[in-house]
Write a structure and sequence with these properties.
665 residues, Rossmann fold, 19 strands, alpha+beta, 5-stranded antiparallel beta sheet, 6-stranded mixed beta sheet
């Protein structure tokens, strides 16, 4: 028996005749149709039977003919005919329910835009020949078409002309042309980068009585937060830097009397609106404002990113308009150079006097995006031009405009930091203007600005460009002090705890304060710098830290000072723009600086407190969890004052937007 099976297994089965194949196929199709006639009508259709039954009426007679059945000629004739019939069904299907996938294999290229009728027919025929295009043609049933979103309804009106269908086609169902599922483009990747720094903790004065940090006059965070809220989304928490939000607004703090005193300090103590057991120590610094006629000569280099990532309406086009505004603001004897980078760096404009403004504007107009991003090479070229036109005793500054997407050459934050640290020794400052969304590299731009003795701003609208480069041109361009550091020593007999609000990325070690080799922030003409500490008085029920078990039992040495009302001691170190040795300013903080209620503080103090609360809330700081958005909006609205440019009114609206987006009640 085994041998019989073995012998049989080696034999080829008999080949069926063409007549037998034709009879079997016809019988199968007739049996299928007969069975289907006994079924209820297909859902959503008034016509019984399957929608492809038209094939049976054509296919069966053909296949029953001996001439075609089982022959190669059948393939040559029937397959193209099937493709044509497929297209006709899509065009004229009376029920609007046909769904035909022309291609079943991945296509070599995606469809960039809807195809023309001719293209559709060509691709249908090509697919019938095995030349797959990846085109998926389908009709959506009427019920589904009626439920389509308004966005898709627009496609319905265009469907008849797109597919060449008869009049009234759209009323029966919406035709749709789309790439096959495996051809859909990947979702847009969000490559935005932000520095990650935890909020400053509450510190015990007994354990750590001294707080040291660098000033920060950047405003990029506020503009980015505003753009996010206006777009209907809560901002990335890492994008929120409370100090930059506070310092975005102009304040009328007391001004220094002359350039000999580069800035003046005003300290105000108020109750904390979000915590009844603590107080706010509000430190405000106002820089000396240079009179425009006394402004030094400026040598500016525009370092402009023209890489492919800048090819967006809110990037290079906005950037070009922003620089046009700045050129109009400069004096006739100032000079401008332009360097671009994309793949490699190139000089677009050699140092040119503002007297030849037409030439400068024409150079700006020629800028076009394209290529990768050789940021480091661009920085090198920009410093070379700045050195070429260096102005002794004047302003020498590079204005880097980019989305921060450096991807060629030294691109890590540390590499660029070292490069810029080396270059700043030449006396050339570097500021950064950020543009766009999607691949915005905030972390890198903060690194560049902080280590280039410059400022960082984010330009999301032409109005913001006007504010930064025209209205605040003096503070943006003309430094009055560099390496400015603040240090506060709290009296342990009066203050139990403190928390610095913001400045997390500007923290310094205690010993850094007196070290002139340590870099810090810079203050420009008329700049305002505001810092807030939340302090907990000794004996307050809001104290979070227990007393130290092994603390000295003797009376604190500072208690005698406390009896005179001293709460803390403020020290400021700074260097002149062209100096290497720092100078010191000191200010004692006493009860004389205190007001009984927040309502009795100045409008500027109250408004800055509202901004500080808002920034902390957006950043998810637990200290303000119980302080609502409406309370913040009410505090800010009551402190708007004159508001000539509408900045404060806009802020109140942003708080209300955040309330809605966060679902706060």
């Amino acid at each position: 028996m085994t041998d019989d099976f073995t012998s049989l297994s080696g034999r080829m089965p008999p080949t069926p005749s063409s007549e037998a194949r034709a009879r079997a196929l016809a019988a199968a199709m007739q049996a299928y149709d007969a069975a289907e006639e006994n079924l209820p009508a297909a859902q959503g259709s008034a016509i019984p039977g399957r929608q492809s039954s038209i094939f049976n009426r054509i296919w069966s007679p053909i296949m029953n003919r001996k001439l075609l059945a089982g022959s190669a000629l059948a393939t040559l004739i029937v397959v193209p005919a099937a493709a044509f019939l497929t297209l006709e069904i899509v065009r004229n299907d009376p029920s609007g329910e046909a769904e035909v996938q022309v291609a079943t294999k991945p296509a070599p290229r995606p469809l960039a835009k809807p195809a023309s009728p001719a293209t559709i027919e060509e691709r249908a025929v090509a697919d019938a020949k095995g030349e797959t295009s990846g085109l998926l043609i389908r009709q959506v049933p009427p019920a589904a078409a009626e439920n389509e979103a308004p966005r898709q309804a627009a496609d319905t009106a265009a469907a008849p002309s797109a597919l060449g269908g008869a009049v009234g086609f759209a009323a029966r169902g919406r035709a749709e042309i789309a790439p096959a599922p495996d051809m859909l483009p990947p979702p847009t990747e969000n490559r935005e980068r932000f520095g990650n720094a935890d909020a400053n903790p509450v510190k015990s004065v007994a354990a750590e009585p001294v707080s040291t940090f660098s000033v920060d006059v950047d405003t990029a965070s506020y503009a980015f937060v505003r753009r996010s809220l206006m777009a209907g989304e809560m901002p990335n928490r890492d994008a929120v830097r409370v100090e930059e939000m506070i310092n975005y607004f102009p304040y009328d703090w007391s001004r220094p009397a002359s350039a000999a005193e580069p800035f003046k300090t005003t300290v105000t103590i108020t109750p904390t609106p979000w915590n009844a057991g603590t107080r706010l120590m509000h430190v405000a610094i106002k820089g000396y404002e240079v009179v425009p006629t006394e402004a030094p000569k400026a040598n500016l280099v525009f370092l402009i990113d023209v890489s492919g990532s800048m090819d967006e309406p809110d990037k290079l086009p906005l950037l070009k308009n922003a620089f046009r505004l700045l050129v109009d603001r400069l004096k006739p004897d100032d000079t401008v150079s332009i360097v671009t980078y994309a793949g490699n760096a190139g000089t677009v404009l050699e140092p040119t006097s503002i007297k030849d403004k037409t030439k400068i504007l024409a150079a700006i107009d020629t800028l076009q995006p394209g290529g990768s991003t050789a940021g480091a090479a661009g920085i090198d070229a920009a410093y070379a031009l700045a050195e070429k036109a260096f102005v002794e005793g004047g302003v020498n500054r590079i204005m880097l405009a980019t989305d921060g997407d450096f991807n060629v050459g030294p691109s890590s934050d540390e590499d660029l930091k070292r490069l810029i640290e080396q270059k700043r020794k030449s006396g050339i400052f570097l500021s950064v203007l950020g543009f766009g969304r999607g691949n915005y590299n905030d972390a890198l731009m903060q690194t560049i600005a902080q280590n280039g003795n410059g400022v960082a701003a984010y330009i999301d609208t032409l109005a913001e460009a006007q504010k930064t480069l025209v209205e605040e041109a003096g503070s943006s361009l003309f430094p009055i002090a560099k390496d400015v550091k603040l240090q506060v020593e709290f009296n342990p007999a009066a203050i139990a705890e403190y928390r610095l609000i913001g400045y997390e990325t500007r923290a310094l070690k205690r010993e850094d304060f007196n070290n002139d080799r340590i870099d810090a922030g810079d203050i420009g003409s008329g700049h305002s710098v505001t810092a807030l500490y939340e302090v907990t008085p000794k004996g307050s029920p809001a104290v979070l830290n227990d007393d130290l078990r092994y603390a000295a039992a003797e009376k604190p040495a500072g208690e005698a000072v406390t009896q005179n009302g001293e709460l803390a001691y403020l020290k400021i170190r700074y260097k002149k723009p062209d100096g290497d040795k720092s100078e010191l300013i000191t200010t004692p903080v006493t009860e004389a600086n205190a007001v009984p209620s927040l309502a009795e503080a100045s409008q500027d103090v109250r408004f800055s407190v509202a901004v500080a609360a808002f920034g902390q809330k957006l950043a998810g700081n637990s200290a303000v969890w119980d302080y609502s958005y409406p309370a913040i909006a009410e505090l800010a609205a009551g402190a708007k004052g004159a508001d000539p440019f509408g900045y404060r009114g806009e802020f109140v609206n942003l708080v209300r937007l955040a309330k809605g987006l966060a679902g706060d009640r």
